[in-house]
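hi! just following up on the protien thing from before. the input was this:
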Amino acid sequence: MTSIDLNCDLGEGCGSDAELMRYISSANVACGFHAGNETTMQRTVELALEHGVAIGAHPGYADRENFGRKQMNLAPAELRQLIFDQLDALKRVCDSAGAKIRHVKPHGALYNQAARDRELASAVVEAVAEWDRDLIFYGLSGSEMITAAEKVELRTASEVFADRTYRSDGSLTARTESNALITETETSATQVLDMIRYCRVRSTDGIMVPIKCETICLHGDGDHAVEFADLIREQLVGNRITIAAPARIHA
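and the predicted 3d structure came back as:
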C-alpha cells in the first residue's frame, strides 16, 4: 500500500487550523516572523498533539507586512540567525507542551529563492543541520534545497503542491501570475493522484514534468483549503493510499 504525507502551513492566523488538522499528517507551524506569535504557536502545537499530527517549523523572512512573500537578500550569518531564532521559538513552545519538532519547511520567498539558488539553499540547510541534524527537511521536489540537504545528509521529503500550478522547469508558477493557484477542488484532487501514481505533474504549458512525491502541501491560507483537504483525503483513502508523516532517522 502506498503511503504519502499530507502537510499544511498553519498558525498563520487564517482561522481554519482546527478544521484542517483533522485531515493532515504534518503541520508546518509559523514561528512568529512572517506570521503568528507565541499564542498561535501554542494553539497549533496543542491541536497537532490532539490529532496526532507531526509538528514542523515553518521559518520565513521577518516581513509580516508582505506575509514573508517578498524576496530578500540576507548575509549568511543573518540567515543562520533568522532560522535559529524561529526554531528556538517553536522549540520553547514544544518543550512546554511535551512535543517535539520533527521537520523544517521554509516559507514563502525564502522557500522559492532557496529552491533555485544553490548558495542560499546550502546556507538554509546548513543552518538546519547545525541546529538539529535529525530534523527532516521539506523542500520542493527536484530543487536546489533537496540537493543541498542530501549533501549534508539531512533526511529529506520531496514536496509537491495540491493547490499550485507548475512551470515546465518544475518550479511553481509565480503568485503574480493569474494561473498560479488551483481553485477547483476536483482539479486539485486529480493533480494529487497523478503526482502520486505517475510521479509527474502537468505544467501550465501542457508538458508532463517528472517529480518525486513524498509530501503534499496544502496552503492553510487558501480560500478553499478545507474543501481541498476533505476531498484529497477522501480520494487518497479511497485509493488505498495511507496518509502518514515521514519517519525520522532517529525517533
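The chain has eight helices and ten strands.
Strands lie at 3-10, 26-30, 54-58, 101-104, 136-140, 155-161, 200-202, 208-210, 215-219, 242-243.
cheers
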